[in-house]
Amino acid sequence: DTEVTQTPKHLVMGMTNKKSLKCEQHMGHRAMYWYKQKAKKPPELMFVYSYEKLSINESVPSRFSPECPNSSLLNLHLHALQPEDSALYLCASSPNGNQPQHFGDGTRLSIL
Amino acid sequence: AQKITQTQPGMFVQEKEAVTLDCTYDTSDPSYGLFWYKQPSSGEMIFLIYQGSYDQQNATEGRYSLNFQKARKSANLVISASQLGDSAMYFCAMREGSGQAGTALIFGKGTTLSVSS
Description:
The complex is a heterodimer of chains A (112) and B (117). Chain A is mainly β.
């Protein structure tokens, strides 16, 4: 079991749907991350929240909208996604950069 | 130029043998950290081992050790006594800078390790 919990584990949605991915950690980590990963590729950083403020946005399309309601919770709101957005979405958290990022099990997203 | 280079797309090893996965890095920052992660086919990213740029000794964690050669800018992962459960994708990653919260990791392309009986 990982200490970073992501829900749902699998999500299938149409291009017109709106859905959200959820990530939760209770380790007191002050940084949280969203990554997108295609098969057999490394994770690609999407967003970083540090102390609940968005600190890095890697030029992600606006159809992806992150939200950090509190220090334990990170959401990724999805709207009008494209088939190429189908991927594994990983959430991670860390106390600081010297400590490893702890990853959740990911959400496998399929866009029909 | 790539900051993290993993030159071995795939590696094959027999059970109980040792295997080395290569990783070279490129940074001009004197402070950095190097991480290795394992990703089985199920998808979760599992942290294995960490080496800081100022660490004097090579990091070890159970069957995992990191062969850190700073002058050559390499940070190879050594897995001793391979097990079938070691079959997975392995990523080398680097953090540049002093390590404030929210510092992004730079990942290499990964190496797929296959362990056979």
